[in-house]
């Protein structure tokens, strides 16, 4: 028994994610750092700049938010700044708000369906971020597998490649677990990031030096 | 108490402690058709809890999923002793084999073993057959089902019996025993003296359907219509192959079908290959071309999940659900090499015959491929979101080109499988090569 115990215990956490998914409605972010969120939830980038600039000496860090490229088939990173907070879930939330707002660069495309909003992000001790979106993400998506891959991995890659504490991302819609968004990508369990769908590595490298991006 | 279960290439040892509470299971496998897995210790004294967990997960990934599911469930079933457990028995006879469904009216543990000409199910407490035993007058695989003593059911096998698999279902509690017939290989063709080729089974899966219309083109062409039409045309085309394969469509009408059900159709038909047909879309309207996917599996995660499912099996409901989930998700991992070969064949033929842009063979975690117990790919034949490609996809002519490519790819793949099978014919669909 003892020989497997550590590995199995780590692994139980992986399987337990289904249960955590069910528990996501409970107002208790699991395994989050004890520090309270220093920001109100879901600020837009404009609000962040305007309202908090003079309040705190919060450090800002650069992140790459991944949007579909207009020029080629894949995701390209747009550099944005977020507040460097201790809570991984809070950084993930800021990044996803940027993703929802859409790109500012003209050579990038919006990817999340209009009206999609982020309900919550939970980060578990095993490095899984559960991102809970409104149902527009599912109902508004439509489309084929490539569209779905771009959508799913814009979220996963944007979060995992910018938040070192997060290794994979699971999806919830209105607090509930889902199978797929539109019949293709398996969302019954959390996904690791996919670097192969990223068409420009440059941005990620540049950002890594600032935000402590993991290789 | 320790039960030892002996099946053709697997010995499974299951331990229960003095109170009847299950201890961690250990699996060991071995046999001539399982390269890399060594012969086994069957002496229960050598079993220490948990020691061979990773060996077990490797074994399960190599194709003993159904048995593993069964054996793992053995431990989950509580071993309370009281009134006999009622067992209702139904048998379904088909060309491929006979399926026996035993419905239990209470949870009960059992072990299954194959004796010469019999499969015996030993229950851990008394059972009583309810209703009539199935009528099996003309079945050459299963002769009859009867009880011997209070705790044993005996399935008497016929001359066409080749192998068996078991799995469990819940609500109600069922044990399903699939008895597979010998393939036609032993029915010698009188004129040539040569065994006829076994019939190949191809399952085609037209993507989406019903209210799930899939992608929609700029002028309103629906993916679900294109996929169904291509699948029907492909079925027609494949029916002229020699030898004629059995072709099954997961849906042959405009209706919603869950992803796991599509996969289950292929598994149930013991398909040689599973081809899910889709039409793509992208936010970039100029995106064009065809691409073919096979499953991107996360091996390390899967092993961890398997271990976790075993670890957590203390409580019946949750444990079984986790285990079912894990086993389903491991199913395709042992066929990735064949799936990659099939994907290559599909992509190559699409490039050859349609002249569309080659987007290559790719891997993605597509749900419809996850539980498939055979070579399985998802092909995106073109981008309906591209106006020019939508126009092409509307035309019968272009659809026929796609069908030609897919039919040729199926032919290539089956020919390759024949070549690989040739030196050592193996009776079941697991004749496909084992991953290195």
Defining traits:
heterodimer, A: 215 residues, alpha+beta, 4-stranded mixed sheet, two-stranded antiparallel sheet, 7 helices, 33% helix, globular, disordered N terminus, disordered C terminus, B: 436 residues, alpha/beta, 6-stranded mixed sheet, 5-stranded mixed sheet, 10 helices, 18 strands, elongated
Plain-language structure description:
- The complex is a heterodimer of chains A (215) and B (436).
- With 215 residues, chain A is α+β, with helices and mostly antiparallel strands.
- Chain A is 33% helix and 18% strand.
- Chain A is built from seven helices and six strands, in the order H-H-H-E-E-H-E-E-H-H-E-E-H.
- In chain A, the strands form two sheets. Chain A has a four-stranded mixed β-sheet with strand order 3-4-5-6, with helices on both faces. Chain A has a two-stranded antiparallel sheet with strand order 1-2.
- In chain A, helix 4 (88-101) packs across helix 6 (145-160).
- Chain A is globular.
- The relative contact order of chain A is 0.17.
- Chain B has 436 residues and is an alpha/beta fold.
- Chain B has ten helices and 18 strands.
- Residues 1-81, 185-193 and 424-436 of chain B have low confidence and may be disordered.
- The chains are: A alpha+beta (215), B alpha/beta (436).
- At the A-B interface, helix 1 and helix 6 of A face strand 15, helix 5, helix 6, strand 17 and helix 8 of B.
